[in-house]
Structure formats: structure tokens, C-alpha cells
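Sharing a chain and its predicted structure for anyone who wants a worked example. Both blocks are below, sequence first, C-alpha cells second.
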Amino acid sequence: MDAYGNTALIIAAREGQNTILRTLHRYGAKLNTKNQFGESALMLAALNGHAKVVDNLLGLGADTRANHQGWTPMMYAAFSGHSEIVEYLLRAGSEVNAATNNGTTALMLASKGGHIEVVKVLLKYHANAGIQNENGATAWSWAMESGNTDIASLLHGKR
């Protein structure tokens, strides 16, 4: 374990080392351990775009639920623009409209980040574009503020 509470399995997932991850799991490493920031192996694999690792972790039974601040692995993938991983997580049962403690959703994160393919996947799974965070912002307003007018146009009829 490193100074931030990252186990060898979390590090392997974060770095996309699928073979090492499977070996560690086979020898008893726990899938759902979280580091001091509340991040799991699945969250960091999703953040870094390691689709094969995410698929493997899901197959092994990794937890798709939120950390202590309400962030889910799907939000990590949406934030980073990894549409394939967002789709994997939604198929595995992630809640499309889950929100962080301040009301931010994956759709808001993808809209702000300009990740139109993620937005399309989330909408396909019926993401609610009308959800407001604690400041009254929506996915559409975040897209507009960030200059992502293509996403704002896509969301316009959905709010």
C-alpha cells in the first residue's frame, strides 16, 4: 500500500495492468478496497480509460456504487470522456442519474467536458437532462458555459 492508501490491486487497475490485477485477485486481493480519497480500483480504471480492466473488474464483481462524496465509477468515466466504459458501467447496473453530494450528475460532467459521445450514451440510457445541482445548474447550462454548443443543442429538447 502506498502513502495514499492505494493497494497493489488499485495501482494495477489505475495503470491498466490487467494480468497483474487478475493475479492479485486470484491470490486474495480485495476488489472493493478504497484509497484515502474513497477511490476504488474500478473508479481509477474508469478514469484512466482502461476498458479491458473495467470489463474484467465488473466480471469479478467490483462494486459500481458511489464513494463517500457520491462519485461513482461511471462519473469518473464520464468526466474523462470514456463512452465505452460508461456503457459497460450502465449495462452492469450503474444508476444513470446518480448524483454527487452537491447534485452533479455524469451528464453534467460529460457536458462540461465536451464529451459528446458520452452524452449520447447517457441519453440512450435515459439520463435526465433536467436535473439541477445545488446551484441550479443543469447539463445544458454547463455545456453552454463551457462553449460546448453541439452538446447544448443535443440537450436542448431534453430539459
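Comments welcome. The CA atoms of residues 18 and 53 lie 5 Å apart.
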